[in-house]
């Protein structure tokens, strides 16, 4: 993790549409959890989508660096970089009548309109670098702030709001092929004496599953507490009669580092250490008629353990032994690699990763 004067950064490799979707979902969640209006979160995700799809379509590969600052003035910034052919006519690309093929149709002019600070550099055969910053408050920043220096280009992991002190967090998800939204979800919430985190998978996919997943995320964040069995049962009562979902929830005590794990359905928790551990959720459906009596599992977390949660969009045959070689890699890299190598195209797929500090 890298934090410079309160700025937290995460770099995401981009070479396919799924990477762009993951980056957009990450930005949307970060902006919302920073307390900004939903409109700002949507616009920030749109900026990521536009810039990311430009990388995929015109350069083939590149990177996006997401920066988040919560004080003294909150902002989200996206830095998109590639070493593609460059933009032949930058002035034309920035005209209002110009948009990128295959994106949302807003193009660079739309990105510039949705940004409080925007700059672009492009050279033939050397690539393109676009920086777009959006302030998260309604009030405009002062002139001095608006003309401040560019941020460093050597980012590390963003500390997601709710992440325990010293822990690292990463997440990657993508929707079912043919869909533009996902019915999977994640929760990461600080509570008295520790942290609750988890993963959920609404049955089916598409818009209905997406709406229920977002409702469950909000409900879990608002009602989180150390009793994860009671929390899961509370969510069951909240969504009873819906299409239902699978769920794994974990509470980690800040002092003892003991984890309490409970789950229902086809979600799993892997603990990457030697020997490794995999905890499958109990059969059943949260919100359905076959909600089981929950039996929590207790696990002692040791320094630098990597905890990895998956929905059933990740191959169910995946074993902890296959994952162990990843335990020393960066958490966002782990999440993205698991999604790429083991994710199913025909289902929503999500991988969430947390690593305990030394």
What's this model, at a glance?
The protein is an alpha+beta fold and 358 residues long. It has helices at residues 17-33, 38-59, 90-93, 107-113, 143-146, 207-223, 228-239, 320-323, 331-342, and strands at residues 3-4, 7-14, 62-69, 75-82, 117-123, 127-135, 168-174, 184-191, 194-202, 245-253, 258-264, 268-272, 277-280, 297-300, 306-310, 349-355.
Structure overview:
The chain is of the alpha+beta class and 358 residues long. It has two domains: 3-146, Heat Shock Protein 90 (2-Layer Sandwich), CATH 3.30.565.10; 168-355, PPM-type phosphatase domain (Phosphatase 2c, domain 1, 4-Layer Sandwich), CATH 3.60.40.10. The chain has helices at residues 17-33, 38-59, 90-93, 107-113, 143-146, 207-223, 228-239, 320-323, 331-342, and strands at residues 3-4, 7-14, 62-69, 75-82, 117-123, 127-135, 168-174, 184-191, 194-202, 245-253, 258-264, 268-272, 277-280, 297-300, 306-310, 349-355. A six-stranded antiparallel β-sheet has the order 1-2-3-4-6-5, covered by helices on one side. A five-stranded antiparallel β-sheet has the order 7-16-15-12-13.
List keywords for this structure.
358 residues, Heat Shock Protein 90, Phosphatase 2c, domain 1, 2 domains, 6-stranded antiparallel beta sheet, 5-stranded antiparallel beta sheet, 9 helices, PPM-type_phosphatase-like_dom, PPM-type-like_dom_sf, Ptase_RsbX
